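agent> fetching stored inputs for the orotidine-5'-monophosphate docking request
agent> found them:
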Amino acid sequence: MRNEPFGTRLRAIMDARGPLCVGIDPHQHLLDQWGLPDTAEGLASFTYGVVDALADRVGVFKPQSAFFERFGSAGVAVLEQATIRLREAGALVIIDAKRGDIGTTMAGYASAYLAEKGPLACDALTVSPYLGFGSLQPAIDEARAAGAGLFVLALTSNPEGPQFQSARTVDGPTVAGAVLDGLRSLNDADGSSFGSFGAVVGATISRTDEDLDIRGPLLAPGLGAQGGTAEALRAVFGEVAARNVVPSSSREILGAGPNAAGLQEAADRANDAYRTALGY
Ligand SMILES: O=C(O)c1cc(=O)[nH]c(=O)n1[C@@H]1O[C@H](COP(=O)(O)O)[C@@H](O)[C@H]1O
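agent> prediction call returned; pasting tokens
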């Protein structure tokens, strides 16, 4: 399933199915809206409803681990199953767990999510660099070995993000700039024009002075429910980075369910808007 590096596979599926990433965030209020109980069974019906409706027409999915962990092992089992089903349908899965730790602990997370035979094997994992970019090395090594990818938090969509991300490091660049520099170096070292090491850059940030040309993907959450728009994407990411953007939307799409046709229409509409905005 991972016969090529993540970046290569991501480029191909975005070109084929459009850039949209559907976030699977089964919030309690969405379960309620879909007429489902707030239980592991409700979570399973919701998640598999999204999978059945969209797995073969959307290229990228980003299940939010928190909403599965909420139900303990029964919820995590749904995340495992959904990931398997989505990947069998040819879609790529980014598990959004924002992991980040030191040394052998980071290696533990990497073997769970990134190793080919890991129990939660997906295509890419969101990770947090706030223990130092170098603390991610075990995940970087595992991703390279397994043909998987990473998305490292850089300029997040939440209003609290700049408190740390805009602060200067001892070497001079901002924290976000240091993360982007680190990712650019990894992708350059792999000799790829679209590498496997991506940054998370919220669609809600205004135009930034940071260099977003990391030769890799830019995951852009914050669309729809958090106020980011397709039109604003071009302004945030500019010409150079536009084709590298993976626009991610959760509640905006999920709110169109439980009807499969409603979900499909919402996903197609969003994909068309992002294609136009990003110059496809
Ligand atoms: O890493 C993420 O995906 C992420 C980073 C970020 O800066 N902002 C952000 O909202 N997210 C995630 O993206 C999803 C946004 O969901 P919606 O606002 O419903 O589209 C949630 O799962 C967030 O955890």
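agent> quick read of the result: The chain has one domain: 6-275.
agent> awaiting further instructions
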